[in-house]
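Progress against Task 2.4 (sequence-to-structure conversion) is shown through the following example record, which the project officer requested during the mid-term review.
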Amino acid sequence: MVKKEIKVISIGGSIIIPKTGFDIDFLKKFKAMITARVKAGEKFILVVGGGSTCRAYQQAAKEVSNISNMDLDWLGIHATHFNAEFVKLLFGDLAYPKIVSDPTKKIKTNKPVLIAGGWKPGCSTDRDAVLLAKTYGAKEVINASNISFVYTADPKSNPNAKPIVKMTWPELQKIVGDKWNPGANLPFDPLAAKEAGRLKLKVSFVKGTDLREFEKILNKKEFQGTVIE
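C-alpha cells generated for the chain above:
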C-alpha cells in the first residue's frame, strides 16, 4: 500500500469557538468527518488557533495596562493551547495525549490525530502549521477559517473587495504585508506566507464550517475557496 501523506489543517479559533457560542452540530459533524477518514487509514495534524477568544483577552489587557507585544503573543499562545485541549478531548483516544507545542520536532506515535497549539512569540498558528507540514513532509496545508476566500481587500470594510480563486505567495504577501502584529486579523500570517513560499507549499483556504467544500479538498477535488502556491 502507498503510504498516505499526513494532512495538516490549520483551524481558526473562530471556527471552533465562535463569538456566538459553540456550534455543537458543527463540532459533531467535524468530528465525524475526521473520524471516518481516520478509520479509512488517514492521519491528521489539527493546528488550533486562538480566534476571537484570544483577541478579546489581548484587547482587554491592552486597555488596562501597557502590555508588550511579546506578552500579548504569549497570551494568545495560551489561548490556542486551551482551545487545542478542548479539541483534543473531542477526539478522545484517537488523539495524541499531549498538545504539540513545538512544530519543528517530530513526534513518534501510532495515534492518527495530533492536536497543536501556538509555539512561541512572533508568529501565529498559521506559521506553526507551515512548519508542521515541513517537519512531517506534507505538501499542502488546509486553512479553515470563517471566510471562503482570500479577498483583494477586507470584505467587511470594503464593498469592492473581490474573492481570489488562485494566487501566488508574492501576491498574497502584497495583501498581508511582511510583519506580524499580535492579534492581527489577516487571512494568513505574513511570516507564515514567507515560509510557505520558500517551501513551495500549497495552501488551500476554505470556509471551515462548510464541510462539503472542506471534504472536497481532502478528496483532492475542485472546491469553493482560494488556492495559493
